[in-house]
Each structure stands twice: as structure tokens, then as C-alpha cells.
Amino acid sequence: MQKMMEQRNRTTQISHPTVGGTIVTQAGGMWQGTLMWRGSDSETQARKELHAQVITQVPANYLEAIQFGSWPGVVSLTPSRERALPPPVLQEWIKRYQGVIFALAPNPQAGDAKTNEDNLKILGKLLSEKSMYALGAWGKERLENRVLLFWVNNRIMGSYFGQAGGMPELPRNVIGGVNLLTAPLPMALVLSRMPAEMQAQMEQIPAESRLKWLQALMMKHAQARNLQQQQGQGGGDGGAGGSGMHQRSGSNGGGGLANVPADVLQSFMQRKPDVQ
């Protein structure tokens, strides 16, 4: 019996090696750790430090990219200044910069499971109601933003950025006078795909001419999208790490862009972001 138990323990250690809060299996990998942030007491509303023990998990083919072994045991979160963009726009940005999307859940082995889950719900409510991101930073010589947490599909999701220098600058909420938070999704997607040089060019165009320029740009994208669909080359969705983020909201590309009336375009070019 003792030999059987020793053999079973050896098998467990081989299939579940633990390094720095990381559990690796043939099916994938998982990071176990603690998130900490400044929040409010649910009863007194007094400011206090909150924490939640969580697990994150990705498929095995993304283990190298997400570098769980480099994650600290405790990740301190700070709120973003930027407002959270619509999920399809954010997803494209994450994919562009090779972020690895992961799911986040309370650790079922936490000492006080209910309090732990409640605290994580508080974080989710904060991200949802304030329409913002939470940033997690770490580093040996200096802190670099590595993790972006956001609220989508009624849950907290995240993306890890492992490149030198950490996470790139967050996408802008307003491009060329158009507020992406309130603009029609097709318009927001087209503007978010514009290179920085083109965005700067658009902002230099006089306001009275910018509307025609934007209409022509949207028409061009709509025609290109329709041609792709006719040729059966419509692109798939999803970034690295892959599932659970994409939301279908009508057209997620150029289709339908030409149908946005001029007065609607004008209204969104004049609309300012809400301030919370």
C-alpha cells in the first residue's frame, strides 16, 4: 500500500509541477495568486484595501506566451484613466499587440470562499459600473504594466502582454473628434484600425471637411469588406488565448458602414466622452 501511495505521489508531482504559483498539466496551465486593489467597504463605503485569491487558466498551446512562471504571487491593481472600449474594438487591439487572453475565476481553495468571491464581485462591479480597466504591473528593475483586466460578458477577463516594455499604451477613446465609446460599432472599428499617422492626418482636417473624409473612408472599408465576403475570405475573430470575449453586435467589420447617415456621423463627431 505504501509503495502504491509513493508511486501515486510521484505521478502527481510529474503531471502537476508547481513553479511560482503555476500549475502545468497536459491540458493547459493555471496561475494561482492574489489580486489586491483599493476599494470601498460594502457597508460603510470607507476606502480599504481589498484582495481576492484567483486562478487564471489558458490552453496548453498558450503556456509559453503567457509566461505564468514569471508572474508574482500577489498582483497589485490600479485603475486605468482610459474608459473601456466596446469588446470587439478592445479585442482587435489585444490581437494587434499579441496579448494573451485568459479567464479569471475565484480560487475555490480560498480560506473564506464566500468573502473571496464577494470581493471579486466587487472588482467586477467596479470595472463594469466605472467602465474602466484594471492594470497589473510587476518587474525586476521597474514596474511595467503586464496584465489588463476588463469586464465582458458578465465576467472578468484579462490579457497578458509579455513583450519588452510591457503593455503598450491603451487605445484612445476619441479619434478625430469621434467618441468610440458612443459611436456605432462599425465606425469605432474602422477608426481604431487606423494607423497613428492616419489618425493625426484626420485630426488636422478642418471639421467641416472631416465629415466627408470620414464618409469616404467608411465607404471604402464597406466595399472592401463586401468584396471579402463575396470571395469567402471573411476573417475569424479572437485573439491569442482565444475564447469568451467576442460579442456579436450586428456587423463587426466594414459591412453596414455606408448605411450610417451623415447626421448620425456628425452627432458622434460632436459628442464628448462622459466623465465619471
Task: Give the structure's gist in a few sentences.
The chain has 276 residues and is an alpha+beta fold. The protein is 35% helix and 27% strand. It has a seven-stranded mixed beta barrel. Strands 10-11 form a two-stranded antiparallel ribbon.
Topology diagram in text:
Blueprint lengths: L1 H14 L2 E2 L2 E3 L3 E13 L6 E13 L3 H4 L7 E10 L3 H10 L3 E7 L6 H18 L1 E7 L5 E9 L2 E6 L13 E2 L2 E2 L5 H8 L3 H9 L2 H24 L31 H9 L6
Parallel strand pairs: 3-5
Antiparallel strand pairs: 1-2, 2-3, 3-4, 4-6, 5-7, 6-9, 7-8, 8-9, 10-11
Helix pairs in contact: 3-5
Q: What is the structural class?
A: alpha+beta
Q: In angstroms, what separates the terminal alpha carbons?
A: 64 Å
- Rg calc: 22 Å
Helix content: 25-40%
Q: In CATH's first tier, which class of the largest domain applies?
A: Mainly Beta
Total domains: 2
> Helix tally?
8
- SSE string, helices as H and strands as E: HEEEEHEHEHEEEEEHHHH
**Percentage of residues in strands:** 25-35%
Q: Give the integer mean of the pLDDT values.
A: 77
Q: Residue ranges: pLDDT <50 for 5 or more in a row?
A: 1-20, 234-238, 246-276
Q: How many β-strand runs? A: 11
CATH architecture of the largest domain: Beta Barrel
The biggest beta sheet, please?
A: 7 strands, mixed, barrel
Lateral strand order in the biggest sheet: 3-4-6-9-8-7-5
Q: What is the molecular shape? A: globular
CATH topology of the largest domain: Ku70, Chain: A, Domain 2
